[in-house]
Amino acid sequence: MTAEEPQIKLRLAHAYGVYPSALRDAVIALSDETFTFCVGRHIAICDQSRQRTAFLSRDPRHRVITAMTKSSNGKLLAVGERMGSDDGSVPHAVQISILAVPKAETLSETKAEMKEETLKVLHPANKRLDIIGLAFTAEGKYLVSLSSLPESTVTYWRWESEKPVSSHDIQLNVNRLLVNPSSPSQFSVSGPTYLRLWDYNPNDHGLNENPSMFPLKQEREMKVVDHCWVLATFLCAASEDGHVYIFEEGEQREDVDVRAVIEKDESVGPKAAEREQAKTLQKLMGGDGPTAAVEPPGVRLSALAAWGRGFVVGGNQGYVGVFKVDAKAQVESIGTFRMAGEKAIIWQMSASAEDSSMTILSYEEQEVETMGGNTAGAKRSDSASRRSVTSRSSSAGNRPERQSNGNMWSLSVFPVGQADLAATGQLEVFTPVFPTGNHHGKITAMKPAFSRRVICTCSEDKQLKVWGYPSEEAEAGPNAFTSELSVQASPFETPTTMAVHPLGFQVALILEDMLRIYHLTTQAATRTHFDLPLKHPGGVSYSNSGSMLAVSSENDVVLIDPWRAVVVHMFSGRGGHLSQVNQVLFSEDDRMLLSSGMAPHGAIYGWDLTTENRERAFEHVSKLSTYTDLNFDNRLQLAVAVVKPEGHLRVISHLSTTQIEVQPESRGSVYTSLCLCSALGLLLAGTQQGSVRCFRWPLPEAGATYFAEVPLHAHGISAMALSYDARYLFSGCEGGTVMCCEVGATTLQPDGTSMKINAMQLDQKLVRARHGEVEKPVLNKAQRDDEKKMADMQRKIWDAVRAISATTASLDDLLQVPKNYFSDVLSEIRELEDRMQGMKHENDHMLEQKENEMQEKLQTIQMERRQEKKVADDKYDGLFLQLKQTNLRHGQEQEEANAQFDQRNRQLQDNFEGSISKEYQKQSKLLDELQALRDEFDRSKSKMAQEHNDQLSELRATQERAMREWRAEYEKVCNLLKSDGLKFEEALRQQENEYEGQIVEILERERKALQDESEKSTTALKDGVSMKQTIAMLQNQVKSKDAELAEASKEQDDMRKKLQASQEMADKVRAQLKERERSLKVKDEALYKLREQMKHLESFRFVLFHKVRALEEERDPLEEQVNSLKTSVREMYSEFVREFRQKQKLDQLLSDKSTLSNALQAENVQLQEHLVQLKKDGRRMLQDVEAVVHAENTADYVNMGKKLEAVCDRHQKLAAWKPPVDDPGNEPRTEADLKKGTALMEEMAQQRDLLFRKKEMASASAEQAKRECASDIRKLTSENAALIAEMNTLRTENRSYLRSCKEMEAKIMAMKNPGQTAISQTASAPDLGGGAAKNRVPPSGRPLPSSDTPYVRRKIVDAQEQYRRARQKQANQLPPVSQQSSSPMARMRRAEPTSEEARFAQSMEGMQAQRNHMENQGFNMSKLHETAADMAADDGGPAGQQ
Questions:
Q1: CA-CA distance, 1178 to 903, in Å (whole number)?
Q2: Would residue 317 be called left, alpha or beta, if left means φ above 0 and alpha means ψ between -120 and 50 degrees?
Q3: With a threshold of 0.85, does the pTM exceed it?
Q4: Per the CB 3.0–4.6 Å rule, which of 314, 963, 975, 1122 could disulfide with 303?
């Protein structure tokens, strides 16, 4: 590369579209204004406030995104990627990349080079299965992943160390994974028939599946579509049949019927009005016509997402429902919303951090065209999308059928934080991210305008879209890339190619059999200029000046003046193509027109338009080749094109075969499209795998390789185009995504630094190259002066353009609008201005009136406030005086009360000290007795332990002797087997299968026995541990209790029971030994029989000897293990018996101590009664003294002494009270007594704590049992409720069937006897046997069955009343619509209406006009008509009877 050649670098700048595949978490909200979504092979971050898009920096080569998730703090993003290519050139693998999400301020810096954001890369064990689910834990340290079928592996990752902690294969169809926000070790997994909670155990690193939260039958029948965690507490799951289930801690709390909520919310409002209109129209049209109102099916739920105050549910028919959930799991519906058209299916939703907005990813099922020539296009689209989206069988099992590329995906923003306002219609509900939408099929053509910053695209979705891109100055501003226009090109035909006028106001489209030219203005005013029918049109192109249009028709190329609609020239006949022309192209200077033909002729011709005869100036023929994406370098006279179907790049010159050909290295790198910029020396090529390769132009004749490759799309690139200033490269793929890359061109300076080429320098290069100006070396002074003059002139032009662009609109800011449309808009503007002026005057007048009213109200309120203030001040002064007096009285009374309280407190303190000293002496005495009993108990316990140890040693010796005898017998048997083993060699060969089966059975029995023994031992260990805890508690209690003297007899009984238990144990051991002897005898008999049968097999003993020795080596460890387990079980049993006996003894001691404690408590009660009585007497005495010395009696000093003396005489018995003489509390207390009392108190405190803990344990177990019972009761209640609901449904159906049956019987009776009930019998008429027959009763006593019962008569009357009302209603209705007839006379009668019909039509029109007038005034005419009809029917009933 020379110093003059610019260095080229592509940087992704913008994208229009969504990755068309059903990915969970394909849209993730990062903040209130930004969200991330997948597009192509990249991850885009969209800023809604600035309308800008940035992309995460990562390596997307040969990678397709299969899953995404973000951490709770929004700083990390985990991406599941599938690596590999369709042709196998890159091996298939799966990985998980952990990316750092950049800050919002760095996203706004478009020129900043973003660093590689990949932090870690995780590699799953199975590299063939796609990752379909990812979720971070709350703290962000762990990551949980879910793979696709058939394994559906859940893996728990410590992502910082890139190592899996645990994994488990579910092996079911699951597709959703979320982590519990409040518990990082718990996560939820759901699928069509699966919803479970999983727990991660950090101790053993295991994943444990919790039981189903639904009944198993219900879980298998339902289809769970999605789930989420709400308020970090509740788990919400949505089923397809319209139910949302709310769980808390694995138990169901609520079942929300979404369809019932929808029906309730839509019973009023616009939706209800539409249904009423449809019903009215159905009645007017006769009921079953094409306009009959069809009740839509129920909404099928498809998505569920959480927001700050609840959850949002989405489904088909464009349904979005917002619900609020409180802390008690109570659900409240905030609003029901529908997307425009009610055809969208919600796939995924994500709410922002502050709940200001929610991003919604939805799709519509695209109808497959089957008409005419469009079938091939549909097949191409389906094959292309199926190749790229569903080519991996590993992920097809987990993704729904709706992931096919036939779906039309779109992104919308919903104001979930203001859903209540949106429900009232005060806000715009759904705002599309791309205002005019995006393409939903293969991009068939893409062309720029060479004088305006727009680019046009068309695709297989039959849409023509116009996109805008910014200038260099406006690139950093908001809304840089815009969606200008979207037009449906044709309802049935797919556009194949297109051309854009250089001014950007006219577009030519090639449809299947015509050329259609549009004038591009605004969305509402864009119209078709004209349609030109052509036979098999192939290519179209505008000249660079815009004065000519070239279009091909079969083998011909037509040159047209598009403004005057005149054919200038036609290239056909012998000088033209021999096969269909598929592309036409003008050279940069418009002097040559080039065209390429399809196979089999495969020619490229160029005609010189400057000559009179339009002579051929370029010619190339390659048989059996089809050229596409033809580009021409006017300076070098070279053409470059893509050769189909090989996918090669071919550089062609005049009258040459092939100058240079670049072949792809694999099927995935097949070249599909080209874009040439000769001014920059750049050739860009798109590949089948979605990447763009950059070549230096012109290509070298040998070793032409690309110098850069940029992966962009997840599908093959189908169209490419450079902007007119060569700053942006636009590319479209088979998936319908349009991506824009900035082309950064830099030049190398003489000092070695690189400098970027700005927009003006690029324009200068492009324009000069277009007009054939080349840079020439400066040789003399005159040339240097000329160059200097040109530079000065260019600088002046740039300065003038800058000055004008600041005040004048450029071509990018202009629109070509028709005059009629412009005049209509101006008239509408004038009308709106007049209305605004009128409303302004009305509002001013109303504001003045309101202001006057407000002033009057304010004055009235101020007067009232002044009066209220005066009254309040008077009240305040009075209350203040009262408060002051009350405070003084309260202070005096408080001082007196304090003095009295102090005196009483001192007296009570003295009395309490005396009584507590007595109690202390009693407790000291009891403590001495307790210590003596404890010593005696310790001596007896040691004696019992010694005796028990002796018995255990005897039993152990007996057992050892028995084991030695059994082992000796066993060794004898083994010796016999060894001596006779060689005899069975031939028998072992013949019956090897049978013996192997027996050995397997023996091993299975041994394994089962070992398993049973291990379970028993585990149970025994658990029981032993619980018993040890119980025994420990009992021992602590025993230490606080005393033993009594009568324990000796009980100890003898205990010893007898222990001896009996030991004897029983010995009997059991003997029975076991007998059982083993019996088994040995059976084995001896079997061996004897075998010896008798197999004596002739002496020669085969060697093989059996080795087999038996191997079996013995396997059997010995098992025997040892069995023996050790049996020994441990016996020891545990003996220990259990010993502890149980000790527990019985302690229970007896506890009962004795309880009796003693009750006696002490009774004595304490008596003492407390005496103390209370003494307190009462003292209180009475004090009250009498206070009454004598009160302030009111201080004047009578003379009689105060006598009164006090009378009080003392009255309470003389208090002076005579003395404590009992025999009370040990009167004795003096020593220091030893004090220590004993302290120890006794501590022991009592310990006993109290033990009893309290025991009580807590019992209460906890009782609460646990209650909770379990409550949960069982709730489950049974729910099941019973379901059964009752089914029974009620069946009862209702049964009643309805019975009612209909009875009504039919009544109708039949009425039809059989039409005049029986109409004529009633008079009183004077004779009875001709009817009465007798009526009163006849058979001998059995039961009346005969008769149709003349009261019930039947009532039914007949009701039926006649219904028939009469129906006849009256028909008479009141409008005349019926005449039925159509196929006869000619009937058609003639319908052609000429009668005078009555004309008058009826005129009256109907008048009634309809009057009805419309009343409805405009606010009357509900449908309800009025129904009310009038009911009143008429009610009035007609009595009249008919009369």
A1: 12
A2: left
A3: no
A4: 314
